[in-house]
Amino acid sequence: MRIYCTEDYASMSRKAANLLSAQIILKPESILGLATGSTPVGIYRQLAAWYRKGDLSFSQVRTVNLDEYVGLPADHPQSYHDFMRQNLFKDVDIDPANTYLPNGMAQDLGEECRRYESLMRSIGPADIQLLGMGRNGHIGFNEPSGDFPMYTHVVELAPSTIQANARFFDSPDQVPRRALTIGVGDIMRAKRVLLAVSGADKAEAVYHAFAGPVTPPGASLCVTAPPKRDPGRRQSRPGPPPENRRRRLRLTMFRKQTTTRL
């Protein structure tokens, strides 16, 4: 796991955009897992700026988003379909047919979860998954809860999440109470994860995610990666690895729920 500390939001956005752009340059047909919310806006603006300069092309890229509100049509100004159009897709040369989000207007939400899960498996794992972190530590819309959701599912949004997202709507009553989100297992399949967090109001969530005690299934989700091995050093032959080392990514859960932001 590598942790980058930057001076401000602009620096964080540029650093995260650098990592994403490097992935696209190295592999033009990359699969990007994308996130929404206030944190990635600066990242997307930087990527669009580099595209306008001719430094970057999205023509072969495919994108898979984490989540979508239940009950909002794709053209609703607060839907995540529209968010992605306004903040990235309309400003770069990506093929709209290669951009994927859950359908929050599906009549059968269970079937939509299965459809999206099948779609992700047919496309393959994300080469890099961009994540933000909610004030209560949620990843995607995987809210603090007593279980460990692995696959795409319908989630009841926590009161703190509704309150945090109310600023995007005319009133808190207009914030949808449910959402479709990919699960923890889906996130774990990504080859790399880029978690971007900014703001003092999420400081406590970050502290508990990276420095707090690891407890059994409980509240917020945090994605961490095992330490990278130095390829220049000879490694001793390891014994049978514990379960949490058999995967590229390890996800841990924390009991404590916080209403602060970073």
Please provide a brief summary of the model.
The chain has 262 residues and is α/β, with parallel strands linked by helices. The protein contains 7 helices and 10 strands. 39% of the residues are buried.
SSE topology sketch:
Layout: H1 9-26, E1 31-34, H2 41-52, E2 62-65, E3 67-69, H3 80-87, E4 99-100, H4 109-123, E5 128-131, E6 153-156, H5 159-165, E7 178-181, H6 184-188, E8 193-195, H7 203-210, E9 220-224, E10 250-254
Parallel strand pairs: 1-2, 1-5, 2-4, 5-8
Antiparallel strand pairs: 3-7, 6-7, 9-10
Helix pairs in contact: 1-2
Label the overall shape: globular
Helix count from the secondary structure assignment? 7
Mean pLDDT: 81
Percent helix among the residues? 25-40%
Distance between the termini: 20 Å
Q: Indicate the low-confidence ranges by residue numbers.
A: 215-222, 224-262
Number of strands: 10
Class based on secondary structure composition and strand pairing: alpha/beta
Q: Proportion of β residues?
A: 5-15%
Strand order of the largest sheet: 4-2-1-5-8
The rounded Rg comes to 18 Å
Taking the sheet with the most strands, its summary is: 5 strands, parallel
Helix-strand string: HEHEEHEHEEHEHEHEE
